[in-house]
Amino acid sequence: MATRESKEGVKEASRPAPEAAAAVPKVIWDDSQMKTSYVNVCNVLGTREEITLLFGTNQAWPGGQKEVKVLLSNRVVLNPYAAKRLLQLLQQGVKEYEARYGELTTS
C-alpha cells in the first residue's frame, strides 16, 4: 500500500480503489459436513511437495512400557504454503491462549 504526505506533513496510507476492494471475495465457512475428532498425539512428515500431519490418540502412557501404541485416526496433507499459513495461525492462537491463561510448557 502506498503512502502520501498530507498538508500537515503526516504520512497517510492511500486507499485502494473501490473496484480493487470489490475483487476480494467474501469467504463463507460451510461446516455442514465437518467432522470433529479428539486427538492427543500428532506427528509431522514432509516431502518437497507436501507436509503431512498425522493425528491420533493414546489412551494411557504408563511408565516402563517398551512400546506405546497410538491409534491414528486422521491424516491432513497440505502444500507447503498452506502448512506455513497453518503454522502462523497456530502461533497466533497459542499466543492469545497464553496471554489469557498463562504460559504453556512442553517437555
Instruction: Note the total helix count.
Output: 2
How far is the first residue's CA from the last residue's CA?
43 Å
Major sheet description: 3 strands, antiparallel
Could you spell the SSE succession in H and E letters? EEHEEEH
Mean pLDDT: 86
Fold and architecture overview:
It is a single chain. This protein is α+β, with helices and mostly antiparallel strands. It has a domain of 57 residues. Helix content is 25%, strand content 25%. It contains 2 helices and 5 strands. The strands form 2 sheets. The chain has a 3-stranded antiparallel β-sheet. The chain has a two-stranded antiparallel sheet with strand order 1-2.
Summarize the structure.
With 107 residues, this protein is of the alpha+beta class. It is built from two helices and five strands. Helices cover 25% and strands 25% of the residues.
Lay out the secondary structure.
Blueprint: E1 3-5, E2 11-13, H1 18-22, E3 41-46, E4 51-57, E5 71-78, H2 80-101
Antiparallel strand pairs: 1-2, 3-4, 4-5
Which tags fit this structure?
alpha+beta, 2 helices, elongated, three-stranded antiparallel β-sheet, 25% helix, 107 residues
